[in-house]
Specification:
The chain has helices at about 20-25, 60-70, 85-95, 100-105, 150-160, 220-225; strands at about 1-5, 35, 80, 115-120, 135-140, 165-170, 175-190, 200-210, 235-240, 250. The chain has about 250 residues and is of the alpha/beta class. It has a single domain (about 1-180, about 210-250), classed as Purple Acid Phosphatase, chain A, domain 2 (4-Layer Sandwich). Helix 2 (about 60-70) packs parallel to helix 4.
Length: about 250
């Protein structure tokens, strides 16, 4: 199974690359591909916000409707949705949750802050024919500002210190960055050491993948004015092995 993040489309921005987004969606036509929608799907520029309200393509409602239409053929491939700060511009001023509207129209589970997913598929885990392989994912839009890749990556690393998962996906910063974090899980099983008589046990190294995700924005507009570098438009692919090691691999 392969999970691809779908976030930071910014439909309505004059810099939105629909070509890259359509290429991204085409991956979902393959049976093993699924996605999580991670916010900022619409630009939603307001007079009081960043972005060019005069040059954006369509109203926020038209942007929302465009995204719904584009995602509808793939709604059965969307595991969940969370919102982003661009959609929150509307919510903060009106109480209208644009991402909730999209999720309801698509029939997809929605939680605004982030989603903690248990992903089960296949069979044969631990040599049991009826036992599926299980992975945990935490996905959220993200927060705050950062200039360097390291400063952007540390936000998802920090999240991994207080939520357990096999992989974490965080959007917002428009820079693809993949890291590993390994911690030791104690094993409840023990045995008696023959030489010392002490009851001893083991620990298992648990590897977590930390993924900062891409955007679909070409360079320019307020990103260029603010001195931010061009961002990657290529999608990271989170591959869940099902069997063997490593359990989780990330490619693009």
């Amino acid at each position: 199974m392969i999970v691809i993040p779908t976030g930071d489309l910014h439909k309505g921005s004059p810099n939105c690359s629909v070509k890259h987004f359509d290429r991204h969606l085409k991956l979902l036509e393959q049976p093993e591909y699924y996605t999580v929608c991670m916010g900022d799907l619409i630009e939603s520029a307001l007079k009081t916000s960043k972005g060019d309200v005069y040059r954006q393509v369509g109203t926020p409602q038209q942007q929302r409707d465009w995204v719904i239409k584009r995602l509808k053929p793939y709604k059965h491939k969307i595991l969940a949705m969370c919102t982003g700060n661009h959609e929150d511009r509307i919510y903060d001023r009106t109480g209208v949750d644009m991402t909730s509207d999209m999720a309801k129209e698509l029939g997809v589970y929605y939680r605004s802050e982030g989603v903690w997913l248990k992903i089960s598929f296949g069979s044969g885990n631990s040599r049991h024919e009826d036992r599926p392989y299980v992975y945990w994912c935490y996905a959220t839009h993200g927060y705050g500002g950062a200039r360097t890749s390291g400063a952007k990556a540390v936000k998802v690393e920090r999240t991994a210190t207080f939520i357990h998962a096999d992989f974490y996906m965080m959007a917002h910063d428009h820079v693809v960055n993949v890291g590993n974090s390994v911690y030791l899980m104690p094993d409840n099983r023990t045995s008696i050491d023959k030489e010392t008589g002490w009851e001893t046990g083991k620990g298992k190294a648990w590897e977590k993948k930390l993924v900062k995700t891409n955007s679909f924005l070409k360079w320019g507009n307020y990103g260029e004015v603010g001195g931010f570098p061009p961002s990657s438009l290529e999608t990271p692919l989170v591959k869940l092995a099902g069997t063997g090691a490593p359990r989780v691999r990330v490619e693009s």
